[in-house]
Every structure is written in structure tokens, then in C-alpha cells.
């Protein structure tokens, strides 16, 4: 897998992604602790709202990012967006009201909604061979896992020295370092043909390609399944640890790390697995596993009355991480296979928007329903989402579907 780092352009971009995500992971832990500090046991509802705002911004802005930014301006735009994110992160320690959290999250995620699709679309332009790109996707998945593994572990260590407010400074440093690395990367030569038509029509083209391609409709359904499991972890970990298990700030970080361990183990094994099994097989197994885990957790919660133990929560979170990585990691291969090179930025933007629409459903369900009716009801709702997503994907994404859409 690591041989793909011999490509100097990819190596710099991957390192930029790595340091930015370390910072983002610190912010994830700090934001959960900030929500609990402001709202106590209702922190799940606050986090659910904040993350729903994030998803609304992603759904609305990300389709336009690839369509509106000229190819020759991608580098300065990416650098500017990193610096905006760094500046917003520095203001979060001074928040004293819940509404301020919502405003700053909207600003921070507006920049991320524009940054991420542009960044993701660069990788297949740099790595032309599918074998290299597959390994790049797995490495990218490992980088994302730092947000839920190494970053929480680092956060747990830092929390012995500083309050959680200090973690936001680490977030800002990560974004600044990312900007420096983007500046030093040579971008692919812009192709004029990829900018034909108005930004509006280019954005719609990405959506049309996506929704007219059966395997991508299956991918969207599996994104719903991934969002169901991920929302439970990211929204309710702090509530379970602080209110149900009696843990502290560091225990929140370590339980998030358990989810990351599972995801990282799966990402490490996927290049070998995908050489032997189809994307469809791997992702449908991941969807079935996610649905089964959530159903089992909901059943246990109802039967036990919410009396959870560390010995059950930790392996469950790890297994959820395994299923999550199996669902999301191969997605880039499907996108690359479904459009010509000039349409890839629009297709990645469409995937970013539509996948986060799934999270827009899952986050409020995990947060608001969990806070109002209990985590057992939230788990049952999320399990239903995962079951429906997996079933729809198995129906709409037929075996042997290798056609490229020409929408």
C-alpha cells in the first residue's frame, strides 16, 4: 500500500490531508466536551443540531465547489479555505452560548464543504492507474481514521496538560500546515474542456451522472447505512461515556479511538480484499454487518434498560468501525469508474453532497431522538436506516455492473 507514496504530488497531498485531519480529530473531541459543558446530559441534542447544520452546508455548497472554481485557481482556493478553517477554530474556545457553537460550525463547515470535493477530485487526476488509486483510497481512509483513532488518543494525552479548550489550537495548527503543504504541491495541468457550460449546469451534470448510474445509486444507499452507524458513534459517545458509564473526558477520547481502530484495521486489509472480491460484495457485507450490529445494540438496550458495560461498548464500537470502513472506502473506485476525467470533479462533488444528505437524516435521529426518547429508540431508528439502505443497494446495484454512465 505504501508504494503509492512514491508519487511526490500524492505524497504531499496525503500529508496535507493527514495533518488537517489530526486537527479535525482534536476538534471532534473538544466539540463533544464543549457541548457537554454547555448542555450536560442534553449534549447529544446539541451535537445532533451542530452536525445537522454541518450536513446542510455540505449538501448545499459542495455541488457548486467543483463547478464554480476554475481549475487554474484550485490551489489558491484550497489554501484560502484552509486558512479560513484555521481562523474559525481559534474562536471556538471563547464560545459561551449554544447558538455561538452553531454559527461557528456553519462557518467552519462551509469552508470544508468547498475544500473536500476539490481535494478528492485531484487524486484520480494524479494517480492514473487503478491499482495505485485503490491504494491511495485505502491510505486516505487511514487518514480519516486518525480523526477517530490517533487524534482522540492525542487528545486524551493533551487533556492531562490542558483543558479541552486548548485542543482547538491544535485544530488551527493542522489547517495551517495543510495550507503550507498544498502550496508546495504541483497540481495537474488544467484541461479547458472540463469547464464548458455554466457552473449551474456543471453542478447538475455531476448529479445527473450520479443518479443515472445504478452502482452509484447503490453507493448512495450504502452511504445511508454508513451514516446510521457513524452518527450513533459521533453523536452519542460522549453521552454514553459521561452519563451511562461514569467516565471522563479521556474516556470519551478512548472510546472514539476504539471505533477508529476497527476502521483502520479494515482499511489496511481492503487492498488485499479488493484484489480478490468485487466492490459490491465487500460493501454489501459491510452494510449487512452495520445493520446487524445496530439491531443487536438496540435489542440489548431495550432488554437491559440502558445498563451498559465497557466490556460490551468497546467491542461494539470497534466492530462498527470495521463495517464503516468497508462501506465508505471503496466508493472512490466506483466514482472513478463512472465518468470521464473532466467530469470527475463534478461527480466527487455530487457524492460529497448526496452522501452528507444521508448524514443530515442520521445526525438528528441519533441526537434529537436519543435525547427525547432514549438511546434505545434512536438505535432502533438507525438500525432501520441501515437495513433499508443495504436492501435497496442490493436491488439497484446489480452484479457485474461495470457500465460507465454517459448522462
Structural notes for this entry:
The protein is built from 15 helices and no strands. It has 407 residues and is mostly helical. The protein has one domain (2-396): MFS general substrate transporter like domains (Growth Hormone, Chain: A, Up-down Bundle), CATH 1.20.1250. Helix 10 (249-274) crosses helix 12 (310-328).
Number of helices: 15
* Low-pLDDT regions: none
Cα shape: globular
Query: According to CATH, what is the topology?
Result: Growth Hormone, Chain: A
CA-atom Rg in angstroms: 20 Å
What fraction of the residues are assigned to beta strands by DSSP? under 5%
**CATH architecture descriptor text:** Up-down Bundle
Give, in order, the helices and strands: HHHHHHHHHHHHHHH
Subcellular location: Cell membrane
Main location: membrane
Protein name: MFS transporter
InterPro entries: MFS (IPR011701), MFS_trans_sf (IPR036259)
Descriptive key words:
79% helix; Growth Hormone, Chain: A; 0% strand; 407 residues; single chain
Q: How are the elements arranged and paired?
A:
Blueprint: H1 8-39, H2 43-68, H3 74-91, H4 98-126, H5 130-145, H6 150-158, H7 167-183, H8 199-211, H9 214-244, H10 249-274, H11 279-304, H12 310-328, H13 331-336, H14 344-373, H15 375-396
Helix pairs in contact: 1-2, 1-4, 1-5, 1-6, 1-7, 1-9, 2-4, 2-8, 2-9, 2-14, 3-4, 3-7, 4-14, 5-10, 6-10, 8-14, 9-10, 9-11, 9-12, 9-14, 9-15, 10-12, 11-12, 11-15, 14-15
Subcellular location: Cell membrane
Membrane topology: Multi-pass membrane protein
Protein name: MFS transporter
Amino acid at each position: 500500500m505504501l508504494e503509492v507514496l512514491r508519487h511526490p504530488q500524492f505524497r504531499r497531498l496525503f500529508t496535507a490531508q493527514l495533518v488537517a485531519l489530526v486537527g479535525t480529530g482534536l476538534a471532534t473531541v473538544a466539540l463533544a466536551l464543549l457541548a457537554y459543558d454547555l448542555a450536560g446530559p442534553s449534549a447529544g441534542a446539541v451535537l445532533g443540531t451542530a452536525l445537522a447544520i454541518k450536513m446542510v452546508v455540505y449538501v448545499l455548497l459542495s455541488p457548486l465547489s467543483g463547478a464554480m472554481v476554475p481549475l487554474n485557481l484550485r490551489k489558491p482556493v484550497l489554501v484560502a479555505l484552509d486558512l479560513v478553517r484555521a481562523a474559525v477554530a481559534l474562536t471556538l474556545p471563547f464560545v459561551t452560548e449554544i447558538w455561538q457553537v452553531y454559527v461557528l460550525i456553519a462557518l467552519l463547515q462551509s469552508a470544508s464543504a468547498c475544500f473536500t470535493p476539490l481535494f478528492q477530485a485531484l487524486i484520480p487526476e494524479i494517480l492514473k492507474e487503478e491499482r495505485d488509486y485503490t491504494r491511495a483510497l485505502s491510505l486516505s481512509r487511514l487518514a480519516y481514521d486518525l480523526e477517530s483513532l490517533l487524534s482522540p488518543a492525542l487528545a486524551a494525552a493533551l487533556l492531562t496538560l490542558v483543558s479541552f479548550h486548548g485542543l482547538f489550537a491544535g485544530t488551527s495548527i493542522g489547517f495551517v500546515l495543510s495550507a503550507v503543504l498544498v502550496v508546495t504541491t504541483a497540481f495537474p495541468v488544467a484541461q479547458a474542456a472540463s469547464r464548458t457550460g455554466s457552473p449551474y449546469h456543471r453542478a447538475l451534470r455531476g448529479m445527473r451522472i450520479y443518479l443515472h448510474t445504478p452502482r452509484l445509486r447503490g453507493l448512495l444507499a450504502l452511504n445511508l447505512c454508513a451514516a446510521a452507524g457513524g452518527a450513533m458513534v459521533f453523536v452519542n459517545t460522549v453521552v454514553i461515556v459521561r452519563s451511562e458509564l461514569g467516565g471522563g473526558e479521556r474516556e470519551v477520547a478512548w472510546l472514539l479511538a476504539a471505533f477508529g481502530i476497527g476502521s483502520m484495521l479494515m482499511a489496511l486489509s481492503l487492498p488485499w480484499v479488493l484484489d480478490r472480491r468485487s466492490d459490491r460484495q465487500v460493501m454489501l457485507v459491510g452494510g449487512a454487518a452495520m445493520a446487524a450490529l445496530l439491531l443487536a445494540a438496540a435489542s440489548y438496550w431495550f432488554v437491559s434498560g440502558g445498563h451498559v458495560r465497557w466490556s460490551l461498548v468497546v467491542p461494539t464500537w470497534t466492530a462498527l468501525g470495521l463495517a464503516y470502513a468497508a462501506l465508505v472506502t471503496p466508493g472512490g473506485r466506483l466514482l472513478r469508474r463512472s465518468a470521464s476525467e473532466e467530469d470527475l470533479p463534478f461527480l466527487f462533488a455530487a457524492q460529497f453532497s448526496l452522501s452528507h444528505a444521508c448524514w443530515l437524516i442520521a445526525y438528528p435521529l441519533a441526537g434529537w431522538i436519543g435525547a427525547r426518547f432514549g438511546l434505545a429508540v434512536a438505535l432502533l431508528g438507525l438500525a432501520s436506516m441501515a437495513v433499508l439502505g443495504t436492501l435497496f443497494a442490493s436491488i439497484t446495484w446489480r452484479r457485474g455492473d461495470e457500465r460507465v454512465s454517459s448522462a
